[in-house]
Amino acid sequence: MFKKVLVTEDLGSINHGIANILHERTGVKEIQQAQYCDDAYLKFRRARRDGSHFDLLITDLSFKESHRERNLVSGIQLIDAIRAIQPDIKVIIYSMEDRPAKVKSFFAEQGIDGYVCKGRYGLNELIQSVTEVYNGRTFTSPLLASAISKNNVFELKDYDLLLLKHLSDGLTQEQIGEYFKRNHISPNSISSIEKRLNKLKYNFKAKNAIHLVAMTKDLGLL
Amino acid sequence: MFKKVLVTEDLGSINHGIANILHERTGVKEIQQAQYCDDAYLKFRRARRDGSHFDLLITDLSFKESHRERNLVSGIQLIDAIRAIQPDIKVIIYSMEDRPAKVKSFFAEQGIDGYVCKGRYGLNELIQSVTEVYNGRTFTSPLLASAISKNNVFELKDYDLLLLKHLSDGLTQEQIGEYFKRNHISPNSISSIEKRLNKLKYNFKAKNAIHLVAMTKDLGLL
DNA sequence: TAAATAATTACGGTTTCCCGTAATTATTTA
DNA sequence: TAAATAATTACGGGAAACCGTAATTATTTA
Fold first, then answer.
1. What does the pLDDT read at residue B105?
2. Which nucleotide is nearest to B191 (CA to C1')?
3. Which domains are assigned to chain A?
4. I need a labelling partner for A156 at 20 to 30 A (CA). Which of A84, B140, B148, B193 fits?
5. Average pLDDT, chain A
6. What's the CA angle centered on B132, arms B129 and B136, to 5 degrees?
């Protein structure tokens, strides 16, 4: 089993709960807790310096603002920062976020090993996920996993996301085309942009561009 | 102090935490807990039937799905259902939601008495809020209260919201006008709708309708 | 390499949006 | 009640989006 685990979560009570139950049910020896991403990062650095690195990071995604200055603001930033130094550390996210597209992106972008939805069965699933991940497998909360596998998550390319992003920022199709040209992104003609947009509208069954942006926002893609 | 309080929250640990601390710090005698809105509603009904009604409802907003069939799905539905029967019951929401516009609407629409943001200082604020509400005042988490009072929350009328809603649903301005006519909502000419939209775009500094819808979605108005 | 296929771009017609102005109607004020 | 003001509606011109089709260019396949 994992030797040393770092738990980052801004609600002290939940943090303690996780630590306790992990200790009891999975037999992890050493568990450290942090309530701020910056603290977590410091503990991580310190552990490496002392030659006793962490095996596993369990972190939430969103952290409330506080009076303190913060460098790392979100769980994603924390993961990226830590993985940059120790790429092989296992990572499990434990969060409220339950939009399939988002979660899917965490596996793709951050290469996380497990995703557990906070909720009624959250802690149980978290324990499961720890043993699964320890055994080299990945884990996703069941409800979420089925939603993702249903494949009703239309696959968006980076290009499409960028297009939608600029659209939602109020750029015209012409301006988006200019932007693509400047940044050597192809295709970049107005005609092609229209065509892509049409495909997106068809896939999402959107009536027009406004509808499309609203829907993708609801789905958490933007 | 309140005699009998109902706490609805789907994470058992948080639920217990609230109950404990309320009991210790505010001296509320009887505290009942529920993890589902439907359960909460049943407990509420039963208490009234037995002639020992609740004084105060503390509830979260969002509840994860579960295997069970659910009638009441959100905290708002629970509040509305309970207030329909016992309009004078005090209500405090305890949730992660921290978008000013949303919170403002809870005070306006549901007529809640207190709003406490979950977070690092959440439990402390919750205790405060209980005594404040007991003394006939309202309470809002400080950070949120200042955000609301800064008045950068442009005041949207129901009309504007409906307009934006239909826009984000992909209706054309013409179709929105027809809808307004059918439902005897005035003004309903295309010209007037354009004018309203212009005002909204000006207020939100939006470049076009897409941008406007995207922004209001981000602000949690839609 | 030639042919076939796919991707990208160009273009024209139509609808909807955008924006200013003016006319009409409703409301307020003196 | 008359005048002033505000709200609503009408209208027209230009911009952007929408939609189909065709031409051009790239890529794949035989």
1. 82
2. D9
3. 4-149 (3.40.50.2300), 158-218 (1.10.10)
4. A84
5. 88
6. 130
Cβ-contact B120, A66 below 8 angstroms? yes
What is the C-alpha separation between A104 and B61, in angstroms, rounded? 25
Q: B15 with B60: CB under 8 angstroms?
A: no
Q: How far is it, in rounded angstroms, from Cα B40 to Cα B34?
A: 5
Geometric angle at alpha carbon B127, from B125 and B128, rounded to 5°: 65
Strand B139-140 relative to strand B114-117: parallel, antiparallel, unpaired?
Answer: parallel
For residue range B68-94, list pLDDT tens digits in order. 778 888 999 999 999 999 999 999 999
**Residue B128 to residue B106: CA distance in whole angstroms:** 19
Q: Which residues on neighbouring strands pair with residue A152, listed in sequence order? A: none
Residue with the two structure tokens 């979100």: A74
Interface of B with A in 5-24 (CB under 8 A): 10-14, 17
Contact at CB, A119 and B10, closer than 8 angstroms? yes
Tokens in use for B9?
A: 């929250």
| A32: alpha, beta or left? (left if phi > 0; alpha if psi -120 to 50) | beta
Q: What is the pTM of this model?
A: 0.65
Report cis status (omega within 30 of 0) of the bond before A87: no
Length of chain A: 222
Torsion sign, CA atoms A48, A52, A53, A54: negative
3-state helix, strand, coil in chain B (%, to 5): 55, 15, 35
Q: Which of B14, B120, B218 sits opposite A10 (nearest CB)?
A: B120
User: Residue A19 corresponds to which tokens in the numbers above?
Assistant: 């630590």
Structure token pair of residue A66: 């506080």
Rounded distance between C-alpha atoms, residue A144 and residue A114, angstroms:
12
Q: What is the pLDDT of residues B158-193, one digit of tens each?
A: 788 899 999 999 999 999 999 999 999 889 999 999
d(CA B107, CA A33): 36
Residue A81 gets the label, from left (phi > 0), alpha (psi -120 to 50) or beta, of alpha
Which tokens go with B189?
A: 């000419």
Tokens of B37: 């809105």
Mutate to test the interface with B, among A210, A213, A217 (most CBs of B within 10 A): A210
